Amino acid sequence: MKQWIRRAALGVLCMLALSAGARAEDGIRLIIRGDDLGMTEGSLEAFEQAINNGVLTCASVLVPSPWFEGAAELCRKNPGWCVGIHLTLVGEWRGNRWRPVLPWDKVPSLVDENGYLYTYPKELYAHNPKLDEIEAELRAQIELAKKKGITISYLDNHYLAVEKYPGGLDLLMKLGSEYNVPVSQYAGEQICRGIYDVPVDRKTMSAVEMLNELGPGLWLWYCHPGIESPEQNALIHTSPEDIFIEGGVGPHRAAVLKALMSIEVKSVILKKGIILTDYREVWKERKKR
């Protein structure tokens, strides 16, 4: 019982820190962005836990993914969440292919002969995707999210760095400007080293070490919360260099969720006076300047 009370108290204090984010002029401020909401059924449960009971401050939705409808419903039920669109041009999982939002014959340079998105960045770039088709598809993803009742607070990339493609950065900033939202990683943040590749049994302590390293300024920690389930455990990257040798996708993402909800991570946030914030607060501040 005492342990439960302690966890609850720390959770409340973390939320108070989040609400104070817009008032902070100095110190350490941290956006914690969770990627791939909607990728699996289990992602819905993971994000609900990570935001409502953990320290996650932002959720990035995968519009072309299999569980997008469930993700949209979850976002509608939680209007207080800071939600972004995880702009997607590749679907990287073996046996779990994704199609674009637009009819695939409208974006032929983005898909293979069967109408599926390519499986990793090098494969897509090797087919010289047309920038106008990239723009059309990304706009379609944003518009579908809006149609499904998602209040969009920022944009970011899934797996593929669109800005590294000729004209890609200009396109991202153009979309951000037109939809009046920031583009994650281009809103003045410094990027945390993260815990993506850290062994499963060390993720929580590695997160604590990472947070202890932070100095003053605005930081972004992007991560991939999930649960361990048959669906999640079956996921294997198409790109050999991105395959998890130890643990697999399910255990890795479940360990991220555990870290986000852990007493250790919450404690270091409190001890260092780290102010949790999100892109809505950052954008409000920028517009006041």
Short description:
The protein is an alpha/beta fold and 289 residues long.
Structure in words:
There is one protein chain. 42% of the residues lie in helices and 13% in strands. It has a single domain (24-288), classed as TIM Barrel, CATH 3.20.20.370. It is an alpha/beta fold.
CATH class: Alpha Beta
Largest sheet: 7 strands, parallel
Q: Supply the number of helical segments.
A: 11
Low-confidence runs: 1-24
**Reported CATH architecture:** Alpha-Beta Barrel
- SS-based class: alpha/beta
- Proportion of strand residues: 5-15%
String of helices and strands: HEHEHEHHEHEHEHHHEH
Shape: globular
User: What is the number of strand segments?
Assistant: 7
Helix fraction by DSSP (H/I, runs of at least 4): 40-55%
Overall pLDDT score? 91
Q: Give the total of domains.
A: 1
CATH superfamily: Glycoside hydrolase/deacetylase
The separation of the N and C termini measures: 47 Å
CATH fold category name: TIM Barrel
Gyration radius over CA: 19 Å
Oligomeric composition of the shown chains: single chain
